[in-house]
Each structure stands twice: as structure tokens, then as C-alpha cells.
Amino acid sequence: MYNPQLNQHGELTHLLTTEGLPAPILRQILDRARNYANAAERDEKKHTTLAGKSVFNLFFENSTRTRTTFEIAAKRLSADVISLNIGASSTAKGETLLDTIHNLEAMGADMFVVRHAESGAPFLIARHVQPNVHVVNAGDGRHAHPTQALLDMYTIRHYKGEFNNLRVAIVGDILHSRVARSQIHALTTLGCPEVRVIAPKTLLPTGVEQLGVHVFHDMEAGLKDVDVVIMLRLQNERMSGALLPSAAEYFKSYGLSPDKLAHAKPDAIVMHPGPMNRGIEIDSTVADGSQSVILPQVTFGIAVRMAVMAILAENKQ
Amino acid sequence: MYNPQLNQHGELTHLLTTEGLPAPILRQILDRARNYANAAERDEKKHTTLAGKSVFNLFFENSTRTRTTFEIAAKRLSADVISLNIGASSTAKGETLLDTIHNLEAMGADMFVVRHAESGAPFLIARHVQPNVHVVNAGDGRHAHPTQALLDMYTIRHYKGEFNNLRVAIVGDILHSRVARSQIHALTTLGCPEVRVIAPKTLLPTGVEQLGVHVFHDMEAGLKDVDVVIMLRLQNERMSGALLPSAAEYFKSYGLSPDKLAHAKPDAIVMHPGPMNRGIEIDSTVADGSQSVILPQVTFGIAVRMAVMAILAENKQ
Amino acid sequence: MYNPQLNQHGELTHLLTTEGLPAPILRQILDRARNYANAAERDEKKHTTLAGKSVFNLFFENSTRTRTTFEIAAKRLSADVISLNIGASSTAKGETLLDTIHNLEAMGADMFVVRHAESGAPFLIARHVQPNVHVVNAGDGRHAHPTQALLDMYTIRHYKGEFNNLRVAIVGDILHSRVARSQIHALTTLGCPEVRVIAPKTLLPTGVEQLGVHVFHDMEAGLKDVDVVIMLRLQNERMSGALLPSAAEYFKSYGLSPDKLAHAKPDAIVMHPGPMNRGIEIDSTVADGSQSVILPQVTFGIAVRMAVMAILAENKQ
Question: Residues that bind carbamoyl phosphate, according to the entry (chains A, B, C) (predicted)?
Fold first, then answer.
């Protein structure tokens, strides 16, 4: 079966989505990331893996935080990093997306890190680049955000060991979340036997059960005996209007407070992709509490992005 | 004769314009660029030529694409690169251009890459910097864009060999084009016997013949038997109003379509400085066709900018 | 006495203000800066002191000039530098300042260079970072701008030797100036016997004499026999309205013209933090004259910022 992320030897040449990515590839990334994380612990942050390579950060949709993590990851691998705010550039001059890409390729790009408001844009780019050029999806529309999902998998494995006896709950705006989609695919592939989603009906995509998840509309039932609680960020624009009554109402029903968390296993970990809306989707007591692994997620995120870039650079289409 | 770009030994200390630049200097740049281009082909992109040097990109006029090419070129030479969007900075605080320059010089700048909406601004800067500081004009008003012209010369020489038996046509908005001016001077100096310009009367400067070019208003006649076709970008703001009836009308008369290109020699190459307006000055069939060398231009542009910076760094005023 | 900038061994771990900083620490910074300045004179600009370290420029208040000096200083020490315009980023998404800091810390930050419109923000950050993370205040509200004051001390010592027989006048908008506050503290600590401030009453803070300065409202008397004249920048927004009659009126009374400067010692030096408003707080004849050391200040500023970063990196909380 054709997989646009793998070459004919089954090696990773682009990272576009966790959907359809074989478990050995996921584990290869997590294992490589562990090497980088361990080295950083020993204060060996800098590596020469991408010395002489040019990494282009193409953020058609603004995100300082994610762009920064990729910039740091690439610099720690000694790449030359060029960050372009493409919205303000050539597209304004009427150049097509592919013309922009081909131009940057002609400048000697080795890797594109792409965030785009339209689902599928990184796939389109990956289809058209030269065999020695790699594409990393840094978030496309509502579709996928694979490096976020991978750093979440890293975090879960770090604290909980293997996936095959874990119960994981994802809470919040599943409908609009590319993070949730990528997490569900990764968890399923890695053998997690029970993935739950907890959300009001208005924030769930129709047919979400077909992804292999169990649907809950109530926190008490949904969090019961889970090992991992993944909170999603509630976008400001959802907090009023048709989908939700109000932020206060949302917090009351779906905000993670200590009493709701008490239904999970006592050693359950709490995760969040950031940035957090304290008091809306998560209570500060929980966010800063002993079960929170939200800041380690960020640290692992650098190691995971380094691992992805390092692996891609080894493989040709 | 005094040349503000050369020192007393006749060596290049600033690159401000192709006008008045001796042929041996032009060839020195092209030859050095070939070394860098060949090294890049062997995947040796990174050099230490400018290690420890500070290159400042001063873009008083916004241009992500050109700024990016200089940033890449400087980083490939291992320089520290600082990119400043000056419009938004000190000039807003009422500081004069020369105060800004002297301040950056005092910070240890070794080279300024300057783009400015006013013709002559890089010359003013070059006149006031210290003897060990170099200025590269990255486009000033309607005046000059020497690195673009040099990369075009590189491209022509790469595909066509020497200049002394070539017929070159430059097509489009000659009136507002600093690129066209710089190309004409470079082609003439390098011994090209026949340079043609093809444009409607409203897009030609008065007295353009004095630059040594042949003027055509008709594509069929102008492209007849040429070896090289250089298309110019039509700025959006020209496409309506007094100078041109409409974009569609322009394409009909001056857009490069396969049937118009058929009047050129069968092995003629097609060039464009980018970004292209497909369907306005150039047809997609031609832009993506076998005679197009538009993407190689971009690749050569990195090598040419590296060559310019490397040569400048060797010479003192 | 607890000093938030020093560790238990009395070593510098953050640079937040010159207030309360012991003279040996100030001298340590100036001495280290001299090494870097001397090396730069020998064209040895690049050092490996911070190789593998990550320096984050966090400018919550925009300042291209100051940000650039820190960026250059960090790059000359071989650090990886990430510059964030935080105003446009996470704070817009509702994340708290400390959440942003903790996230960047989790990404492996070794040093934060912080500019913030609110006085005290860098102190808040310094109180919450890990023991191996350092904070440099690059200007907070009206409170402090210690690296500017330190480069001014460097400049004075460079031209005038020791501080214990100097008369220094600071002229202009003392009321709103964090630079003036930091200069006064540094001068006093370094043993300068006479610090004067010269300003209209509307631009002086109440009780300024308690800082140990002599107050003058008249330039002739205030500049009489001083060794050093430090002009302050007059912010545009002060030039009209309640505090000042007009820019022209201000220049007449407090602008540094050659005839006013004649009251200082014949070998007095003239300083300005930049960017200058020529013709408002300083006459061009003086700014460009033989007594001006305004551009050397900029050069020394790079060395001083390198020294601060290098010293901080050696010390743990």
C-alpha cells in the first residue's frame, strides 16, 4: 500500500501524519528522541547531525511557540535555519504555493517544516519536492499535528512504560483538534487498548467512534480509572456562540479540577499541548500539581523534533 | 576614473551597480560563483570564508525572497547574520539613515546588504562606511539590482557559453525595472553584441536606445532568432490605470506563450527573476517547459551572492 | 542582605539592576568587557564561551536596536539565539507570563534577555527560573537598564580612568529614564564623588536628591567644570503637551550646543544612549564633534553584553 511518508524501503522520508505510520517507525522516533533527551540531561544539547543542511520553517499560519521548538531543534542539530512568515511574503505577490516551494528548493533547502491553515497542504508539498528534500507537518488545518502527538507518546511511554495496558482519555474540543486526531492514530498503532474521548456533543466530530475510541460526555464516567488524561486547548473563538454556552459553563462541566481528576487512577498523569487557558479547560491546582507532566512534554518535544529531523535526513525518497 | 565600487588597486570593495564595472571583475565573480555552485553539487554547501564576520541585512524595502537568498548565502559562508527590518525600527524613531549605519558599524558590522526604495541609498552608505566595511546593493529604487543581473549572466554563460555571439531580448516593464538596467550594463560589458528590449511605449524609459539596446514594440519581431529571452515581472500596480489597458490585454501582446517563443531560436533559454505572474507576463507552459531555466537561476543566485560576499571580504577600500 | 542578583557565594547570577550591585561585581564586568573589546580590536570577534547554550531574547516591548546588540553579543559567544517578539505571541493567546517562561525553560533555555514595559517584570522572572537559568534585564519600564549603564561606565573609565575624581552630569528627561536611574546607581557605587542631574522641574522625579545627586535646572551652572556629559534621549511623546512647551523650546534650554558644552571642562566627553534626536536634545556639531564618544559607546556595548553573559553562564544560583 502506498504511503506518502515512506520510501520504497519503508523508511520515513516525510512526517505528515501519524495515521498509517507503522508502529516500528513510531518507536524508532521515540527511541532516537530518548538519545537526544538523555544527552540534553548530561548538558550535551548540541549535535552536528544536520551541519551544512538548510531547514526552512514555513509558517503560513502563525505560531511562535511551535516555530520556536522547531527552530531550537534544528539549531541543536547544527542546521542553518531560515524562518519565513510566508503569509506576508510571496503569496501576497500572487505566487503559487508550489512556485514558492520550488524556489526555496532551488536555494538548496534540505527540509521544510510546514504549518498551514489548510488541511493537506504539507502533503501537496511533499508530493512535489525533489527526492532529497523532506517535509515535516507542523500542523495543517484540522487534520494532523504529528510531532505533537509523537511528543505526547514519548511522554506517556516515559511515565507509564508500554502502551498495551493503558487507558487514555482525551478531553475537550475534539471536533476542531488536529492534535486529538494525531494522538488517536498514534495511540491505536502503539497498541493502547482503550482510548476515550470526553466532550460535549457539539465538540465531537460525527462518527468519531470509527476511529476506535470510546465516547463520553461526562467527566466522572470518562475519567474513571484512566492512566493518562490529555486535556485539549479550547480556542478562544469557541468559548461563546453556537457551540458552547460560556467559558464558565465549560469549566464547570469539562474543566479539569482536582475533584474530577480524583476519578482517574491515583498515579494518572495530566497532559496538555499548551498554551493553557487556566480556569477554562484546566484548574491551576491541577496544571501545577504533582500529576502534571505538562512542562516535561515541552522538553521531550524538542528531543522528538530533533529525532524526526535526524531520521528524515538519513533517508531518501 | 573614480569608481565608487573599486579600491585604488582596482579591486571590488562594494557591489553597487553593474554600470561601469570592468569585465574582469564581472568574470571574477562568475568564476568564483562557479566554484561555489560546483561544491554545492557535491553537497558541500558550507564554507568557513566569513566565519567570525557579521553581515547585516538592511531591508528598508520589504523583500522576503531576496533577503532570504542573502541570508542563506551568508550563512553558507559561516557569517553571523543579522536581518533588520529597518522600516519598523530606528527610522521610525527619527534617527537618520547615516546614524543608523554608523551605529551598526560600531557594533562590528563587516558587511551591509542594503535594499532601499530610494535610488542611490546604497551609494550614500558606501561613501560613509569605514574602509573595512563593505556594501552590497540588493536593489535600490528603479536604479540597480546588480546581484540579480550577475546571476542572470551566470545563467546565460552556463547554458550558452560566451557572450560574444549571443542575441538577448529583455521583455516587459523596462521603465520601472532596476533588474533590466543592471542586465543591460552587464551584457554590454561582457561583450554581448545584440541586446533587445521589447515593451509597449508606455513601459520604456525615454532615450533607452542610448544604453546600446535595440527597441522593439512587437514580440514576433523582437524575439526573432534570439538565444536568450529574459521576462520581467509586471508589478501589480502597473496592471491597470494609465500605463496598461489590462492584464489580459498585456498577456495577449507581451505575455510569453509557446507560439511567441517559437520565433526565438529553437534552443533559446527562458529566464525570469521571479516571482512570476503566471498567465500575465508568462504562460505556465513556457514557465514549466524544457526551455525554462528559471529555477536554475535561483540556485545560481545563491552561488553568485556567496561569491560577491567572499570577494568583497578579501578587499579593503 | 538578600540580593536577587547574587548567589550565596556573592557571584552574579542575574543582571537586573545596578542598584545594590557591589563595586567588585561592576568592575568584574568592566574588566571582562575590556578583554572582549581588545580581542575585537585584533579582529578576534568570535568566542566559543556559550557554544551549545540557548539564549532567548524576550522583547515584550519592541526595540530593534537593543535586541540587535544582545543578538550580536550572544552570537559572538557562539550561543544559539532565539529572538521572540512575545507581544505578538502567547500573551495574545491568554497565557500568563510565567507559563511562557516555564515553557521556554522547558525547551532548554540557558539565559533570558528580557525587555518589558512593566517595571519589575525581569525580577519576577528571575525569581521563578531554575537555578541554572540566568536573566538579563534589557530595560524594564521606568525602572532599570543595567547593561546600558554598564556600557556607559565602561566608556567613562576608558576615557577618564578611575571614577573617584570625576564630575558627571546627566541631562534631560530624568523622570521617565530607566537609563538615568541605572547610571546614577552605578556611578555612586563606583565612587564618583559628584553626580549632577540637569532638567526642567517637570522632567525630574520628586525626591531625586535622595539618590545622592545634585540637581540643576540650568545648563550653564550644571555643566560647569564637568568631566562627563551624558545626554538622555527625549521621547517623542514628551515633546508636546503638559510636560514641555515644544521641541524648539526644549532645545533652546536643554539641547547640548557648542556654547553650552563650553562650560564643561575642555576635555569633557559627551555621551548619548541613542538613538539621537539631532536638533532636539543634541546639536549635530556636538554629536559629531571631537568630544563625542557616542559611537564608541555602541562598540563597548557589545563587549559589555558579552561580558555579562559570559560571567552569568559561569555562576549557578
Answer: 65-66, 115, 145, 148, 274-275
DSSP state at residue C14:
-
C108 part of contact set with chain A, CB < 8 Å: yes
Residue pLDDT, tens place only, C103-136: 999 999 999 999 999 999 999 999 999 999 999 9
Q: Is C64 on the interface with B (CB under 8 A)?
A: yes
Closest chain C residue to the Cα of B93, Cα to Cα? C275
Cα Dmax for chain B: 57
Q: For chains A and B, what is the number of CB pairs under 8 angstroms?
A: 68
Q: Which residue has the cell 539596446?
A: B213
| Sheet architecture: strand order including C269-271 | C214-216, C194-198, C167-171, C228-231, C269-271
pLDDT tens sequence across B242-294: 777 788 889 999 999 999 999 999 999 999 999 999 999 999 999 999 999 99
Residues ≥6 apart with Cβ < 8 Å to A3:
A20, A21
Q: Check if the beta carbon of residue A307 is closer than 8 Å to that of residue A32.
A: yes
Closest CA to C176 of C150, C201, C143: C143
> Domains along chain A?
23-145+298-314 (3.40.50.1370), 146-297 (3.40.50.1370)
- The pTM of this model reads 0.94
The CA dihedral of A103, A109, A111, A115, to the nearest 10 degrees, is -40
Low-confidence ranges of chain B (pLDDT < 50): 90
| Predicted pLDDT of residue A223 | 98
Q: What is the rounded distance in angstroms from the CA atom of residue A120 to the CA atom of residue A143?
A: 7
Residues of A comprising the binding site for L-aspartate? 93, 178, 233
